[in-house]
Amino acid sequence: MDTNRRNFLKVAGISTLAGLGGTAVVDRLVAGSSVAHASTAAGEGAGHAEAAKGHGPVSDPSVNRYGMVIDVKKFQQDPSLGEKAVKACHQVHNVPQFPDKKDEIKWIWMTNFENAFPENPNLYQDEATESHQLPIMCNHCDSPPCVRACPTKATFRNKDGVVIMDFHRCIGCRFCMAACPYGSRSFNWRDPRPFVVNQNNNFPTRTRGVVEKCNFCAERIGIGQQPACVEACGESKAMVFGNLNDPNSEIRKILKENHTLQRNPSLGTLPSVFYIV
Ligand code: SF4
Question: Is the pTM above the cut of 0.85?
């Protein structure tokens, strides 16, 4: 048994693999690791201990649990905000701009109300809600199925409750994509590097065979900055980011004063992204 295979078995656990079809799956996954050599995002090293706890809420008020409130009406009033937020995120994170839609990599994108909130159908929806676009992304769920599905712990929750990825560990199995009920993850079917426009050298690029998604700008939070999308919305307050475990934070004040929706709450994933609609 080679070292790769032995290490993989140690991480994944025999019981999981038995349920997935035995040694054939191991062979496929280990073989897949040969194309997964992306760099690790700055600040994403911490928190592997938290990975094992990817099963429930961070309830300790002495630790951070970051979340976001998105005010849909503000995106209706100023449709340029959506474009600004997407552009800022994708530029900062070296998200490739593939010419073919089928290869598209998305960290944050705009969609309509029905796609975002399929559990809130309303035959008599007002025209503005029905026709306008709102941003969606990874929800940084408090009970994230993607973390449980990842056999190599490439996806984990960090100490602030942010669900992030160690790209080095991703073996491209895409179990996380199957587990995420929000379609928040993208897979690099092609080498993304030639398609990165104005590369940001402070953030790693990825390679073919690696999954990626929004990381709540963990690398920026770590140095006291706001997420790029929040910053791009400026003073509009269309997006507000903060610590949900701090009762005096701005985000908690907004949540207290406004009725908000989370996406697909019946799934029990406990999203950390809230929408004022
Ligand atoms: Fe994981 Fe999807 Fe939840 Fe993000 S939205 S934490 S990718 S399950």
Answer: no
